[in-house]
Amino acid sequence: MTIEGARYPVSLVVNGKPHSLLTPARRTLVDLLRYDLGLTGTKEACGIGVCGACTVLLDGRIVASCITLAVQADGAAITTIEGIAQDGKLHPLQESFMKNGGFQCGICTSGQIVAAKALLDANPNPTREQVQEWMMGNLCRCTGYYHILDSIMKVVGKDSPSL
Amino acid sequence: MRDFSYHAPASLAEAHSLLAQYGDAARLMAGGTALTVMLKQSLVQADHLVSLQRIPGLRRIHLQSDGLHIGALARLRDVETSPLVKEHAPLLAEVYRQVATVRIRNQATVGGGIVHADPAQDPPPALLVLDARLRLVSRAGQREVPVREFFLDYYETALRPGEVLTEVIVPLQTKHARAIYLRYTPRTQDDYPTVSVAALARVERGVCREMRVALGAAAPTALRITAVEEALRGKRVSQAAVRRAAALVAEQVSPLEDFRGSADYKRDMAVVFTRRALEGVLGLG
Ligand SMILES: Cc1cc2nc3c(=O)[nH]c(=O)nc-3n(C[C@H](O)[C@H](O)[C@H](O)COP(=O)(O)OP(=O)(O)OC[C@H]3O[C@@H](n4cnc5c(N)ncnc54)[C@H](O)[C@@H]3O)c2cc1C
Ligand code: FES
Ligand code: FES
Q: Is the domain defined by B61-170 classed in CATH 3.30.1120.10?
């Protein structure tokens, strides 16, 4: 039998700040971030790993926080959208998404920006095709994608309007 | 999601004890990408999750005389980017690169992707044509099972209670063998394939000396199609021979109808993509 109400210790560093809490095994990482830590910038949409809205960095890798249990992330360093801006200054990706119409309703945007940042951290000079391939798993129902791609390519310094 | 207990043993021995202790109520967890979704949807019930992620050594990829050893806990992204895999099993690097999205590949493991045994998964057809073997370790001992004997039915495998898949052993292929993997994804590139085909061949002076073909998403399990293999092995390579051989696939597959297409449509596509794979691997493209 399951030990009803059992709580598990989870320690993680979120956006540079250490946290230790007790959590049920079934708590997903996205729920821990949103409900326990109040970091509501990360969104949950599909809940099954398909759409990318819940993308966060776990030890530098993009993962779907909706299908990651909080207990699995014990000991990890997490970066959420709240940790992308530095010293009150928006990240160039955030500026570019605003300037170039990279979002409309905004549900997918945290995930888009976190995913794009992970790509640029690994490869600061990607081609448009590499950006497309990497961002393939971040769905958007609003923008039609071209503005998202353009927003990222402008940061890379390669202006290549899609239409 | 129903609540459960979570265990993160630090050794395989400890994992085996937990499996013995909790029996049917326990479930192994690797990356959790398949399991968490199934738990959320109540397709799986488990009172105890036994995570393999803290057990050291299970993520290693290394070369031995009997082949390339890929630890069960290696992430799909590890395989895709491993220089060893690229050099000694380039087909696998290519296949794992095409699974889902980088976000999933960062999290999902090789072992989880095999034991999950969804017939539409990408790696099984490739592992089948490479004649890969699986090391299954239990408290009592270990055994090696060819991938070919591992998939029994829809989401069913030869894994016995108490066993843990620890590594995949991929025999090295002769330098002259060519291999290919085609996945047909008419909806989106990150979708599961409607049908998929892996093929491996060796041609000498116009004669097909070796031929291995496996299909995914075309039956309750991924499967080798020996009828096609036998139709080509030892034969002179020609467009006509390929067409005849590919047509044999229709009788060997039993696709399930779903939103990706009817059984008849998938059977037709199995023939088309087998023909393309054969052409590619025999250099007729
Ligand atoms: C959005 C999405 C899209 C996907 N698209 C594709 C796709 O296009 N192609 C494709 O091939 N796959 C796809 N997948 C499936 C993916 O490959 C599997 O979810 C993944 O490989 C499972 O690995 P895991 O480590 O997360 O396994 P887990 O979820 O941890 O486990 C899966 C199963 O294997 C068992 N298990 C795990 N490890 C072991 C072990 N070492 N020994 C014994 N039993 C074990 C578990 O008990 C469980 O039953 C997709 C998944 C998602 C979420
Ligand atoms: S909410 Fe996690 S991938 Fe869609
Ligand atoms: S901006 Fe609405 S889903 Fe992308």
A: no
